[in-house]
Design brief:
single chain, alpha/beta, Purple Acid Phosphatase, chain A, domain 2, eight-stranded mixed beta sheet, six-stranded mixed beta sheet, 38 strands, 24% helix, disordered N terminus
Length: 659
Amino acid sequence: MKKASKQKFVGSLLAATLVVSALSFPLTPVSAATTSTLKLRLLETTDIHTNIVNYDYYQDKTTDEFGLAKTANLIKKAREEAKNSLLFDNGDLIQGNPLGDYVAKIDPLQDGETHPVFKAMNLLDYDAANIGNHEFNFGLDHLQKSLKGSKFPYVNANVYVDDKDKDPSNDKNYFTPYQILERTFKDEAGKDVTLKVGVIGFVPPQIMVWDKNNLTGKVIAKDIVETAKKYVPEMKEKGADIVVAIAHSGLGSAEEPVNTESASYQLTQVEGIDAVLFGHAHGVFPGKGFDNIPGVDNTKGLVNGKPAVMPGFWGNNLGVVDMTLEQVDGKWKVADAVSKAVPIYDSANKKALVDADQTIVDAVKEDHDHTVEWVRSAVGTTTAPIHSFFSLVQDDPSVQIVTNAQKWYVEKNIKGTEYEGIPVLSAGAPFKAGGRSGASYYTNIPAGTIAIKNVSDLYIYPNTLKAVLVNGATVQEWLERSAGQFNQIDPKKTEEQALINEEFRTYNFDIIDGVTYEVDVTEPSKYDPDGKLVNEKANRIKNLQFNGKPVKKDDKFIVVTNNYRAGGGGNFPGLDGSNIIIDSPDENRQVVIDYILANKEINPSADNNWTIAPVKGDVNVTFITSPDAKPFAEKLSNMKYITTEQSGFAKFSLDLSKK
């Protein structure tokens, strides 16, 4: 008898024996000699950002494009399709929209109260969850109060208590580093088998920069990969049959540095990890943009042969990993796997693919209603529309109002201090400018009443205001880093050239008001999208002036920004937290609210302090934005609508010969 046939025969005989035994005995763990096949489905949600109800609080209307209430029905369907499944969440859960703000700031969560996200998620029977970086935005006290409402366990392995003794060998985890979930599943022969699933979680170490004020002196964060190498062997020793890593971290690559923000690729290379559920980057894997990466199978959803999935953001996709496990001589191994991200919305045909789960909507109805009432509160009026449709290609009113408010705040607060008289500049970025968040992700506020919901639309993050003291050279480099937003345009080419680098995050496209400048997009970018110096001699920023005079390297300026940027977020030259002179506890968006309340009526029209330098030649430059931009573009002489693409974005041409 051939070896394979013999094994098959023995396996069948053993299976038959066990079936007979099962008639006489209750559930018995599979013996060491048994060969068993088990199909297991892992489900993942990530980056929900408090979008429980399928409701856009900024537009004040229901939506089919996001919301856990929609994902819930995908979860139920996915469970019905599989005999064995586990459901996990990957963090960035309690912050991200006005509902999260309301529970944290307006009517703060009290001890004994259940955060609305858990009122909903507890109904879905999650098996475990990971901590995301935005969980720290409202401070550790709010985080701990929130987590008490969860009926499922949380894991994180790389955040430790700051014991201040500088001895890493005795550091204690702030959270439970991992869980070993013991579950009874049905194998392919219909037998009950016991499987121990180890679950470990990770968060970017950059939380120590991004939430410096909330975390310094309380916790520390360590490298994701090294932490995995420490704990995975321990999990296996304690009986984990398989290990699932839940990484609130982008994919990255094999060459990422220590303490990288994006470590999921490297986690697939850690011995003992069987699957990686990742997130943070708001992308979809497998999916567009992941082809031709060494070690990545973008069809089966494998990275270095291991299943991995990233299901977008705000519940717009459900991550599904289907694994076939085989048990031989008492040990389980992954024999085959495939991953996919299942959407709730067909963006090409603008069609909902699933209904909202009413039980989820009902679970948070009271919290949702209070939030809607709050965001409708009026704070003032605007004499002109405020939109962000063209915020990546020209000076923009949605950024202008923020920079105006920040400058107003600081100029008031430095009066009578040693800093009075130093010019105040103000930095702001277009937060809602499409990109990875889709064609509907833009600010569009009509002239008239401005409500809380509109201010939240203008400034979506709960950042606090900071101001830094810098010189002219730093201002120049700050803008050079921002100018990485643009692709290099070849003035000799006549074929179409896309202006915007889609790899660049729009929240790193800082505009600095108070100075004037041009961006020469025919030059290469000095910095790559991650802030790494790649073209030392390149200088895109031209004619940088203050009050009509060239900015000198040693000129002094106060630049108003936020805690993320001032503390080093985005890897901007000269910004590491050491030159902060105003360390305000006030949120930037509260400053915007106060500014509007003080002025009652505002004119947010952009002052055009920056422009793209004119390009000589017959260049065909395009950019994408929302189709809703068409009526605004018709009033401008330098842009023209071309088409609406399958992605839902609209393509426009931009005439760079005009200043």
